[in-house]
Amino acid sequence: MHKIWAQKTADATKQKSGVLPPFRIRLQKDLSELARDSNTDLEFGKSTDQSQFTVVYRPPGGHYHGGQFRFSFEVSDDYPHRAPKVLCMQKIYHPNIDTEGHVCLNILREDWKPVLNIQSIIFGLQLLFMAPNPEDPLNKEAAMNMTSDLAGFKQNVTSSMRGGTVKGVKFENVMIPGKK
Fold first, then answer.
1. CA 49, 107, 130: angle at the middle one, nearest 5?
2. SS3 breakdown of the chain: % helix, strand, coil, rounded to 5?
3. Using one digit for the tens of pLDDT, what is the confidence trace for 85-113?
4. Closest Cα to residue 50, out of 118, 110, 147?
5. How far is Cα 94 from Cα 63, in angstroms, rounded to an integer?
6. What is the dihedral of CA 12, 18, 19, 21, to 10 degrees?
7. What is the rounded distance in angstroms from the CA atom of residue 100 to the CA atom of residue 25?
8. What confidence tens digit (pLDDT) does each residue in 106-139 have?
9. Smallest Cα–Cα separation from 95: which of 67, 57, 64?
10. N or C: which end of the chain has fewer CB within 10 A?
């Protein structure tokens, strides 16, 4: 027990002396190597803590074109051995995102491996907007709507993105001002 306490004290001393813990070094590397594009932004709050940030994505095409979607990322100190927690910050009508913001992306669950990184997750999110997967849904109603009535699904997506109500659920307006 004394060894564990001594190690924790040594770790805390190292952190205070400016030596970063391994997860922070890896996170800084991942963030510095992100491929930047005009449809995706990273936002860091007022805190200097890079382990919590927001990814803003504006799909360039598909059903969700014209919208702006925000995802909170929370990276734990056992990253990259555990995937970050990712939540959609807006209520949206999507087969792979439930109304509480949980995202159905296999690399955030069982397929996560330490060789994956933040860029892998961003690519996965982009893919969900370009090609929603009704075969692995979190929002079963949206998935059934997509597979049984694609025109109705598109109409529901458009209505929900404009802040409308679909099947009794009120959604947030996620449209970029000036976009149709």
1. 95
2. 35, 20, 45
3. 999 999 999 999 999 999 999 999 999 99
4. 118
5. 10
6. 60
7. 31
8. 999 999 999 999 999 999 999 999 999 999 999 9
9. 64
10. N
Contact 139, 91 (CB under 8 A): no
DSSP codes, 26-81? HHHHHHHTPPPBTTEEEEE-SSS-TTEEEEEE--SSSTTTTB-EEEEEE--TTTTT
Q: Concatenated DSSP letters for 77-102? A: TTTTTSPPEEEESS---BTTB-TT-B
Residues assigned a catalytic role:
104
From the list 62, 54, 51, the residue with the least C-alpha distance to 25 is 51
What Cα–Cα distance (Å) separates residue 139 from each residue in 45, 52, 92, 143?
Answer: 30, 26, 10, 6
Distance separating alpha carbons of residues 109 and 111, to the nearest angstrom = 6
Q: How many CB atoms lie within 10 A of CB 24?
A: 17
